[in-house]
Amino acid sequence: MIDDWSSLAPSGTRARYYATLASSNDTARGLNLGGEAGHWVIAGTQSQGRGRQGRAWTSTPGNLYASLRTALPLEQAKTGLLPLGVGLGVRDCVVKLGLSPEGVRCKWPNDVLFGGKKLAGILIEALEYRSGVLDVVIGIGVNLAHHPGDAQFPATHVGAHVPATPSVRDGFACLAGAVNDKLSFIQQAPVDEVVGTWSAHAWGIGQRVTIRVDGDMRPATPLGLMPDGSLKVRLDDGQETVLYAGDIFA
Amino acid sequence: MSKLIEYKDLIRELAEMLDKSSLSEIEVEEEEFRIRVAREVAPVAAAPAVHVAAPAAPAAVAPAAAPAAAPAEVAAEPAPAGDSVLKSPMVGTAYLSPSPDADAFVAVGSSVKEGDPVLIIEAMKVMNQIVAHKSGKVSQIFVGDAQPVEFDAPLLQID
Fold first, then answer.
1. What is the ipTM for the molecules in this complex?
2. Residues in chain A within 8 Å Cβ distance of B123
């Protein structure tokens, strides 16, 4: 079953809902955009949902699984800000869905937490960067109705914190608008403004956390976001370093 | 072979001079030999090409004993050079396969077409698909799976 959900997305952007897909990112990757600004693929459920480096992303019906394929004009210097911008868009969306703004935090580089628990996951696949335009698939999973119990990071879902669990349709309409706004924001705003906005909603800055880099777990203190989107951290031996890859845990 | 020792010292000296300078190469020519010491075109860590001191290199100098008509050129080992080398466009972590349990995109000997995905570099959790910059055969892979890479580091050689 395929439904046209384009009316829920910003103008110039198409959206199609599929009851079942292997992976919304894979379907989005196979699209030919033609002249469209963007094309969303929404899956009711995924049989082969993926997270980073092929980790399975549990895809039970009721949650939102959506992937945007877009050709995004973006300065080279700002490409590292893309995951942060998408994270901010997801943050805005769940606040609109009723979560208290103070509780929603962005964890570097692109997770969104509520009350310290993971609410959403993002998997961005950049296909090509040519002539200042990034051809990219932005996959977003938002826990609306439930959350996995076996995740690496403690998780929660939107419905646990609002009077009525939002439908996938309402969740998507909210997400498509919020992500569109934040993509425009990172395209247009100066880098320091993007860094400042993200930092205002960041999780873990100045706290002692554990970082995992290349398989090693090390205690560290995130110091702040760098203009290229990387994260400056201080290790326990006082040495400061900049992360371009890795994970952060409480 | 007695001259080899002299050449080795000279080469080492030249390499040190190169290291301390901002020059990309130094060439010395005498009556019976010519020695050129050059930085790699694709610096892994801006290191000069000091391979000249490696055991294999002196052999290349040895022809100095032969008539000067065949000047010995010390050009390190075949350094990744020219447009056959695909370099990293960013700092990140390289992955040779789309996911840990999947086959690698390419192996040494694979034929690739320009635009084919050859690896992924993850930076800030963005999986950046890196494509072949030309068609040909993969002759070398300079990075390991899940290995950090620097900007401009050589990734693969496609001949």
1. 0.85
2. 80, 244-245
